[in-house]
Amino acid sequence: MSGSSGTPVRAQERVQGRAMPKRKIRLHWSDPTLRSIFWQVLIVGAVVGIVWYLVDNTNRNLAARRIATGFDFLGRVAGIPIGESLLPYDPAKDTYGKALIIGVLNTLRVAVIGIIISTLLGTLIGIGRLSRNWLLAKITAVYVEVMRDIPLLLHLLFWYSLLQGLPGPRNALRIGDGVFVSNRGIELPALVWETAHSWALFTFLLGCVVSYGLARRAAKQQADTGVRPQTWPLTLVLLLVAPIAVWFAQGAPFVIEWPVLRGFNFQGGNKISPEYGALLIGLVIYTSGFIAEIVRSGIQSVPRGQWEAAGALGLHHGTVLRRIILPQALRVIIPPMTSQYLNLTKNSSLAVAIGYQDVVSIANTVLNQTGQAIEGIAYIMAVYLTISLSISLFMNWYNARVALVER
Amino acid sequence: MSTTVVTASGVEHRDAPPASVYGPWAWVRNNLFGTWWSTAITLALGWLLVTALFDFVSWGLLNAVWSVPSGPTGPDTALCRAAHGMGACWAVLPEKYRFILFGRFPYAEQWRPAICVGLFILLFAISAMRRFWRKELILVWVVILTAIGVLMWGGVLGMTYVPQDVWGGLPITLILATFGLAFAFPLSILVALGRRSTKLPAVRVLCVLYVELIRGVPLISLLFMASVMFPLFLPEGFNIDKLLRAQVAIILFAGAYLAEVVRGGLQALPRGQYEAADALGLNYFQKTTQIILPQALRLVIPPLVSTFIGFFKDTSLVLIIGIFDLLTAGKIAVSEPAWQGFATEVYLTLAAIYFCFCYAMSRYSRGLEAEFNRTRRA
Fold first, then answer.
1. Is 80 exceeded by the pLDDT of residue A66?
2. Residue-wise DSSP of A204-225
3. Distance CA B301, CA B362 (A)
C-alpha cells in the first residue's frame, strides 16, 4: 500500500473504494470453500453411487426374470372388473390405461367429497368445543380425543364390517319411500338427466359468474361513495328465475327413477356402495377430529380484545365474526388445514384394504397381472405427487390472499 | 358484592353469595340452560346420549354372551349367533386374545413376547421421565432393544429358536414403531441439518428432494415399494426379510416427517445462538451438538410426540402388505368361520388398545408443554 497520508475524507473514500480481497483457494483443510466442496462431492458421490448400484441390480434382475420395462402395457386390454366407475367401462374391451384413469377419478371422488364433509363437520365440532354449553363442549372434546387416537385403518375396517353386517337387500332398512339401506349399499332415487337440466345448470353457473361480478362492482361503489347499490333483485333473477325459466321453456321434464328390488338386488336409482360408504365415513370421522382442533385453536388465537373492540364499535355479532374474527383466525387455520387436506387425500389410499377401487388398488392389480412393478408404483407416486402439489399450490395462493399485509 | 366481617372469634365470615350465581343450581342454569338455544342443545344431546348409552349397555352388558361351550370341532358359537344383533359376543376375546396379542408365536413360548411388551412399556416410561434425559439413556435403549431381540428370536439360554415369520400381534406393532423411531430420529436430525445448511447447496437440494418426495406420496406406496420393488433392487440370491423391508420403508417415511419438525426447531432458535457459538470459535460439530441441537430439540418436543403418535398409528398399515401386526391378527381372528360376524367386538378391543397407547402419549406431551411454558415464563 502506498500514500498512507491524507485527510480523513480521503481515507473514507479509500475504504469505500477498496475492492474485496481476492481470495484464492488454498489446498489446505482449514480452507472453508475447499472443505465444503470436499463434503459435497463425498455425499453426492455416495448417494449417486448407491442409486447407481440399485439401478444396476434392478436392470440385472429384470433381465434375469425377462420382464420388459416400459409403458407398453397401458395399451393392452385390462380384463379387470371395476365395480364403480365415473366413466363407462367394459373389462373385455378397455385398456389398462383407462382402468388406471378410472382409479384416479375414484380417488378424487372420495377425496373431494371427504374434504368438503370433514371441513363442515370439523368446523362445527371445533366451534362446539368452545361452546358455553358444558354438555356440548364435553361431548365434542371426547369425540376429538377418541377419534384421533384410533388408527384410520381400524376405522375403515370397523365401518366396513358394520355396513356388511346390515340385512340383505330383501330385508333392507327402508327410509321414506325410495331410500333402502342394505349390505349391498345405500339405494337412492335418481333424477333422470335430460338436456333441459344441462341447460338450466348452465344458466345457473352463468348467473353465478354475473352475480359475482355485480357484487364486486357494488362493493367498489360502496367503497367509493359510501352507498351500496341494491343488487339482490337482479341476483335473484339470475340465480333462480332464469334457470327455472329455461327449464320450463324446454318442457320442464321431471322424471325420478326409484330403486326397485328385483331378484336378489336393487335395480335403478343411484347407489352408494358399502366400500365407498365405509371409506368416506372413516375418512370423515378421522379427519374431522383433526380439523376440529385446528379450527378451535385458530379461533382461540384471536385475542378477546378484538371481540370487545368490535362490540364497542357497535357491530353486530355476525358482522364481527365475518369481518373481524374469521379473517384473523383463517391466517392461523389455513396452513395446518392444507396439510390435513393433503393427509386426507393420501389416506384415501387405504381404500385398498376394504376393496374400494381407487388408484392404488387398481394399480396394484395391474402390477400383479402384468409384473410391471416399477411402472405401477411410479404411476401411483406420480399421481399423488401431482395431487399433493396442486392442493398445496392452491392453498398457498389462498393463504397469500388472506395473509396479513405488512409494511 | 359480599362484605367481609371479622367476628369476635377472629374467623372471617362472608355473606353467602346469592344462589343465582353460586352453587350447583346456578352452575346448571349457566352452563346447560343459559339461553333457549343452549337449552335446546342440552335437551337434544342429552336425549341422544341417554338413548345411545342405553342401547350400548343393553348390547354390551345385559344381552352379551361372555363365554361359549366348546363343541366337537372347536368352540360352539350357536349362543352368539342367537344373540347376534341384540347382544355382543365377548366370548370371542377369551378364546382369541392370545392369538390377537401374539399371533402365531408358539403357544408354549408366548411368555417371551409378553415380557417383550412389558420391556417396551418400561422403555417408554423411562424415556418419558425428564430425570433420565442424559447420555446413558442411549445405553438403556441399546440394552433393552437387545434383550427384546434375544427374547423374540431365542436360540440362546435354553430358549428355542423362533423364526421371524411366525412373530405377530402387539410385539410387531411395538417393534415397527420403536425401531422405526430409533433409526428415523437420528436420520431426521441429519436431514434437517442438511436442509438448513447454507454452505453445502448440493446436500441441501438432496435433502429437500428426499423430504418433499416422501411427504408427497402415501405410506402405502412406500410399503408396496418395499414389498414388490426391494427384491429387484438387491443383488441376486440376496434377499432380506419382509418385516425388515417394511421397517426400512417406515424409517424412510418417518424420517422425512420428523425432519420437518426438527427443522422447525432449528428455525425457531434465535440467530444470536448461532453467532455466539461462532464467536466462541466452536467448529460446526461442537456448535451443533452442544449449543444448537439441545435447545432446538427441546423446543419441538410437543410436535415430535404428536408425530410419534401418528407414526404409531401408521404402523397398522403393514396389514395391507400382509405383515402380522396387532390389527392384522385381529382381522384374521374374526375371519375364521366360527367367529365370522363378530368383528365389531374385536375391533372395539383393538381400538381400546391403540387408544391407550396414543392417549398416554398425548397426555404426556400436553403435560410436558405446560411444564415448559411454566419454566419459560418464570
1. no
2. HHHHHHHHHHHHHHHHHHHHHH
3. 11
Which residues on chain B are in Cβ contact (under 8 Å) with A139?
Answer: 45, 49
In a shared domain, residues B29 and B112: no
Phi, psi of A181 (to 5 degrees): -115, 120
The interface predicted TM-score of the complex, written ipTM, equals 0.85
Q: Which residue from B45, B46, B225 is facing A377, i.e. has the nearest CB? A: B225
Choose the closest CB to B200 out of A40, A133, A153.
A40
| Residue in B30, B236, B344 closest to A61 by CB | B236
| In a shared domain, residues B220 and B288 | yes
Q: Which residues of A360-397 are buried (b: 16+ CB within 10 A; e: fewer)?
A: bbbbbbbbeebbbbbbbbbbbbebbbebbeebbeebee
Architecture of domain A96-192+255-402: Orthogonal Bundle (1.10)
- Of A276, A122, A250, A116, nearest to A193 by C-alpha is A250
Q: Inform me whether the pLDDT recorded for A86 exceeds 90.
A: no
Residue B88 lies in a domain: no
Q: Do A136 and B232 touch (CB under 8 A)?
A: no
CA separation for the pair A230, A228 (Å, rounded): 6
- Could you tell me which of A112, A139, A134 has the C-alpha nearest to residue A124? A139
Residues of A in contact with B41 (CB under 8 A): 131, 133, 135-136
Has residue B2 got a pLDDT over 50?
no
Judged by DSSP in three states, B20 sits in: coil
We report the CATH number of the domain holding residue B275 as 1.10.3720.10
Q: State the Rg of chain B over Cα.
A: 28
Closest approach of A98 to chain B, Cα-based (Å):
20
Question: Which tens digit of pLDDT belongs to each residue from B80-139?
Answer: 777 777 777 787 787 778 888 888 888 878 888 888 889 999 988 888 887 887 888 888
Predicted local confidence at residue B159, as pLDDT: 77
Contact residues, B window 82-141, toward A, CB-based 8 Å cutoff: none
- How near does any CA of chain A get to the CA of B163, in Å? 27
Based on the fold, state whether residues B288 and B365 are members of the same structural domain.
Answer: yes
Tell me, yes or no, whether B81 lies in a domain.
no
B118 in the same domain as B18:
no
Query: Quick check: is B228 in a domain?
Result: yes
Which three cell numbers mark B199?
454452505
Range of the domain at B141: 107-377
Reported as a single tens digit per residue, the pLDDT across B345-367 is 889 999 999 999 999 988 888 88
Q: Are B185 and B324 found together in one domain?
A: yes
Measure the CA angle with vertex B139, ends B133 and B141; round to 5°: 80
Residue B316 C-alpha cell reads as 397398522
Q: How many CB pairs under 8 A join A and B?
A: 155
Q: Is residue B93 part of a domain?
A: no
Same domain? B49 vs B147:
no
What is the predicted pLDDT for the residue at A6?
Answer: 44
**B23 plus B162 within the same structural domain:** no
In this prediction, residues B196-219 reach a mean pLDDT of: 87
Residues B159 and B245 in one domain: yes
pLDDT at B110: 83
Domains of chain A, residue spans: 27-66, 96-192+255-402
Residue A47 or B3, more confident? A47
Answer for the pair B38, B32: CB distance below 8 angstroms, yes or no: yes
- Does the predicted TM-score (pTM) go above 0.80? yes
A161 vs B34, B229, B347: nearest CB = B347
Q: Judge whether B350 and A152 are in contact, CB under 8 Å.
A: no
Rounded to the nearest angstrom, the minimum Cα separation between B295 and chain A is 24
Alpha helices (H) along A65-182: 96-129, 134-148, 152-164
